[in-house]
Amino acid sequence: MNDQIEKRIELKAPVSRVWRALTDHREFGEWFRVKLEGPFVPGQVSRGNITYPGYEHVKWEAVVKEMKPESLFSFTWHPYAVDPKVDYSQETPTLVEFRLEETASGTLLTITESGFDRIPAHRRMEALRMNDGGWAEQTRNIERHVSQKP
């Protein structure tokens, strides 16, 4: 079984612009559709509420791992943790990494989410499937965001 998701997109925006869209919590919230309580800080929990229609009941919670300026932003979270009656805190979270590389026409953004093999078997395939579709949509969202707000 594949235990990770990888999405790659070339954005027609400089690395510095993409970095800001990823790591400024307000900008991240705009394209990701989450209202975050405060800035991203390595080693700290980021919290907020999903604003995507139909998922407004879902709380956002991620632990920021790394913020290597203009190259890597990463966090861990519990994938597809959407049932408010379930306590996901005992599960091992997955790792989400955003890697940026300068290209001739802008920025290559690679989004990887790994660690699905550690998700409980009864929800592993659904979490993988739902997040795969979610990351496909999020790559379109960030592309639209950086092109409309240079």
UniProtKB/TrEMBL annotation:
Top-rank taxon, per record: Bacteria
SUPFAM superfamilies: Bet v1-like
UniProt xrefs under Pfam families: AHSA1 (PF08327)
Gene3D superfamilies, sorted: 3.30.530.20
Ranges where the Activator of Hsp90 ATPase homologue 1/2-like C-terminal domain occurs: 12-146
Family affiliation: Belongs to the AHA1 family.
Protein name as catalogued: Uncharacterized protein YndB with AHSA1/START domain
